[in-house]
Write a structure and sequence with these properties.
The chain is an alpha/beta fold. The protein has three domains: 2-174, MoaB/Mog-like domain (Molybdenum Cofactor Biosythetic Enzyme, Chain A, 3-Layer(aba) Sandwich), CATH 3.40.980; 177-254, 2-Layer Sandwich (Alpha-Beta Plaits); 259-415, Alpha-Beta Complex (Maf protein), CATH 3.90.950.20. The protein has helices at residues 10-13, 20-31, 46-59, 77-84, 93-105, 112-116, 153-173, 189-195, 197-201, 229-246, 259-270, 284-290, 308-313, 319-325, 330-344, 391-415, and strands at residues 2-8, 35-42, 62-66, 89-91, 119-121, 125-127, 136-141, 144-149, 176-184, 207-214, 217-226, 251-254, 274-278, 299-304, 348-354, 369-375, 380-386. The strands form four sheets. The chain has a six-stranded mixed β-sheet with strand order 2-1-3-8-7-6, sandwiched between helices. Strands 14-13-15-16-17 form a five-stranded mixed β-sheet, with helices on both faces. A four-stranded antiparallel β-sheet has the order 10-11-9-12, sandwiched between helices. The radius of gyration is 25 Å and the shape is elongated.
Length: 416
């Protein structure tokens, strides 16, 4: 089976936006044993779209299209698809109800352009967009499948993974494709690969492992293909259990879990509370924690102690400690954690102090030097990290690392 990817958008052609969609889609198709024969990027014009569809029809069994489905006048893909498939736009009530619900939840009014997004070609199968307002569209023509999806990455990815790819594999080759996502924190991609190489090498031919790193986290996606969906699911579950035995301290969750969700769930289940003291992260850890609904049940507050004066006056860090060891040190970060824990009367506390960059480093403490402390009911631990020279990346790395250290302490205390 052969596939072609067509990416629509002038912003892609002029380099304003990097086309990450196409590479991600190609990877997913390859994992599903669907051969990608061409990736095409075209401008948002009627002529280019029609010509590309004609060309792809001659080469591929499956044509995946992204882009041009927005609410503005320059998004013409839908009208052009109507022309290509000899169709007309009809109002699709279920799609509109979904958009209406989405806007109501956000407290926004429905505009006419949003209503028009619920108009779709009458001879397509609509694909629900669970993360946006533009539905996808599935067409079939002379044995070929054409699927048009939004260009917004997180909208397209959910649509392809959850709806399009399972249907493609089922319809076109009788196979099911299933995924298990394993989330890890604590080591980089290359170290993780080395730790689990024996396990990976023993995977059966119908299973593949992909490494999907991001700052501070490495996601492992274990995929499998097979004709028996139930049996395949059980096989994948067994492989994940093996991995859990192999790297128990590194795995923090599965699927779409986040560290802030996992930590919040642990705190809530145990009836424990948390506070944070942040210097180099500037409140980012508190932001992640409070992004979870219901976090007020366990998160009491935060002190952004950016200056030494606030570290001393608010958190109670000793002047002697700051003078002798500096703000970025084991002693200071431990006193920060203990200080905020005592001040807010919580069971746990996180403290972070570091040199985020790009300036401020020394030979002894280069840019990226970060100390993280976690204080619990009976102990306080601190650890030094060297994250690198990219400021935004350092802040993200510090935050996810701190949350994972907290997760590990809570889990350890729960086992005692």
């Amino acid at each position: 089976m052969k596939a072609e990817i067509i990416s629509i958008g002038d912003e892609l052609l002029i380099g304003q936006v990097i086309n990450t969609n196409a590479s991600w889609m190609a990877e997913q198709l390859s994992l599903a044993k669907i051969e990608v024969v061409r990736i095409t990027t075209i401008s948002d014009t009627r002529e280019d779209i029609l010509q590309s569809l004609d060309d792809a029809f001659l080469r591929a069994d499956v044509i995946l299209i992204t882009g041009g489905l927005g609410p503005t006048r320059d998004d013409i893909t839908k009208n052009t698809l109507c022309e290509y498939f000899d169709s007309k736009l009809l109002f699709h009530e279920p799609s509109f109800r979904y958009v209406e619900k989405l806007f109501r939840e956000r407290g926004l009014p429905i505009l006419e352009v949003n209503r028009k997004q619920a108009e779709i070609p009458h001879n397509c199968i609509p694909i629900t967009n669970k993360n946006g307002t533009a539905p996808g569209m599935w067409f079939e023509k002379e044995g070929r499948v054409f699927v048009s999806m939004p260009g917004v990455p997180y909208e397209m990815k959910a649509m392809l993974s959850d709806q399009v790819l399972p249907e493609l594999t089922k319809r076109l080759n009788g196979l099911h494709i299933l995924y298990k996502k394993i989330l890890t924190q604590g080591v980089g991609e290359s170290f993780l690969s080395e730790m689990i190489k024996d396990w990976e090498e023993k995977l059966p031919d119908h299973m593949k492992l992909a490494y999907l790193p991001q700052p501070g986290i490495v996601r492992l996606r274990l995929s499998g293909t097979g004709s028996d969906q139930e049996m395949l699911s059980k096989e994948l579950d067994e492989k994940v259990k093996e991995l859990r035995v192999l790297i128990p301290d590194l795995i923090f969750g599965y699927g779409e879990d986040t560290l802030e969700e996992i930590v919040g769930k642990l705190l809530k289940e145990q009836g424990k509370t948390l506070a944070t003291a942040e210097s180099c992260t500037g409140g980012y850890i508190a932001h992640l924690i409070t992004s979870i609904p219901g976090s007020s049940a366990y998160f009491t507050g935060s002190v952004i102690a950016y200056s030494n004066q606030i570290k001393a006056k608010v958190l109670g860090v000793k002047e002697d400690t700051l003078m002798a060891h500096g703000a970025v040190s084991e002693q200071t970060v431990m006193e920060m954690a203990q200080g905020v824990k005592n001040k807010f009367g919580t069971d746990y506390a996180i403290a972070v102090s570091g040199i985020a960059g790009p300036d401020g480093g020394t030979d002894q403490k280069p840019v990226g030097t970060t100390w993280i402390a976690v204080a619990g009911p009976s102990s306080t631990m601190a650890e030094k990290f060297l994250f690198g020279k990219n400021r935004k990346r350092n802040i993200r790395l510090a935050a996810v690392t701190a949350l994972n250290k907290l997760r590990m302490m809570i889990a350890k205390n729960n086992q005692q």
